[in-house]
Amino acid sequence: MSRQEAFAVRGVSKVFIGRTPVHALDGIDLDLPTGSFTCVVGPSGCGKSTLLRILGELETPTTGTVTSNLTAAGRVPASAFVFQEHGVFGWATVLDNVAFGEQMAGVSRRDRTEHARYWIGEVGLTGFESAYPHQLSGGMRQRIAIARAFATGSPCLLMDEPLGALDAQTRILMQEQLLGLWERERKTVVLVTHAIEEALLLGDRIVIMSARPGRVKDVIDVPFGRPRRLEIEATAEFAQLKQDIWESLRDEVQDSLRYA
């Protein structure tokens, strides 16, 4: 495994055992370069989230291996998660939510508070440090989750439909914000999304997965340079690549509907 790879996934399969076994993933081979932004698209139920959880060691593969070169200081986890439903704590203030990861890692109150305030500012929530999640909009709550992930100091962010529950206008703003943060920090990011446009806007490359059991059907390098702006969505090249990805996905989505 090259030191330039954050993850090397080899022959990973996952079967969930129950009354009826569910074969979620089958023979996944994938290299994820350090500092890259990889987007994963595929039909519902194809194992995208399962793959993400295996990368983050929340699930273990039934067969196969995942090798990682990620390292983090002290008790800081190698990967931080951002989920679709925010994952913020309703009983904690914005400041305490953002500082939570470093609190669990044993970072001093002074340092974690300083880091939390910095990241709260970076996501545009300065002035809301003492607010509680129920007092904020959905977009603001998702900004808390993103700030907390960056504040942990983890070298990798694993993001599961982080913008999927937002309205269209808020989603655009959050895409811009996430682009800006990543381009400055250059963490390794793996983001699961159903939106082809979002994958093309954010990603260095796109992993297309088949219907369940999930397999890697294709890996597409995104040709647009960095820094990247929303204006690329108006280009003919963007439209053509979006159509090409949809053509690759169409049969997989149809297959997934047969078993829905």
UniProtKB/TrEMBL annotation:
Keyword Metal-binding applies: no
Keyword ATP-binding: yes
Transmembrane feature ranges: none
InterPro entries assigned: AAA+_ATPase, ABC_transporter-like_ATP-bd, ABC_transporter-like_CS, ABC_transporter_ATP-bind, P-loop_NTPase
MF terms (GO), sorted A to Z: ATP binding; ATP hydrolysis activity
Keywords per UniProt: ATP-binding, Nucleotide-binding, Transport
Organism expressing this protein natively: Microlunatus soli
Annotated ranges, domain ABC transporter: 7-236
SUPFAM superfamilies (alphabetical): P-loop containing nucleoside triphosphate hydrolases (SSF52540)
Protein name, per record: NitT/TauT family transport system ATP-binding protein
Origin organism lineage: Bacteria, Bacillati, Actinomycetota, Actinomycetes, Propionibacteriales
Pfam families per the UniProt record, alphabetical: ABC_tran
Annotated SMART domains: AAA
